[in-house]
Specification:
- With 221 residues, the protein is α/β, with parallel strands linked by helices.
- It contains five helices and 13 strands.
- It folds into two domains: 130 residues, Rossmann fold (3-Layer(aba) Sandwich); 74 residues, Sandwich (Jelly Rolls).
Amino acid sequence: MVQQIKTVGIVAGGPDKHIANLSKYNQMVDYWIGADHGCITLLDHHLLINLAVGDFDSINEQLFNKVKENAEETIRYPIEKNETDLELAIAYALKLFPDQVFLFGVTGGRMDHTLANVQQLLPIIQQNIKAVIVDKQNAILLFEPGTYSIDLDPDYTNISFIPFSKTVEGLTLEGFYYPLDNHTLSWGSTRCLSNKLLSKKGTFSFDRGILIMIKSRDVLL
């Protein structure tokens, strides 16, 4: 009997210093995909690579051969292509019809990559699949209109809402330190940054638009 893949973890080639502790998520992830240098990160964390994909232009041939030896499946693309390695990895993840996808190694470093990678959440949630970008300091999620509950996460106690679309209409926050009722959140507004839950659970809802939620924690230097 083929095991159903409920959770996919994708690891891209972002800076190591931003990557969360992957071992913490290994019990939740049924299938690991390494995108280019993300394969080396998986090997460094002693995790199985179910699929290695990308052009592998960020590693040398010796490391690529190591990836091939350790991955269950390797798919190499030409360097000149229309998709990023992460976009290719997401496309393969969607073919597995999982319930959720975690993305690691997609923040930090080049800002153009980070912004484009956040946008990659959209095609995932449009397939009714939960998608979360995770790094050491943040968890980033994207939502379409609806009502959602949120549990207190001791690892990420700050909660911010940012409009992905030009406006998010009817935003209501309940159980938050700074509540809202039927608010329109627009590009350029900082109204919904750095909120917190009052107890172990809260709810948020909105009627129109696409909303980014960022759960974060401060780093003490």
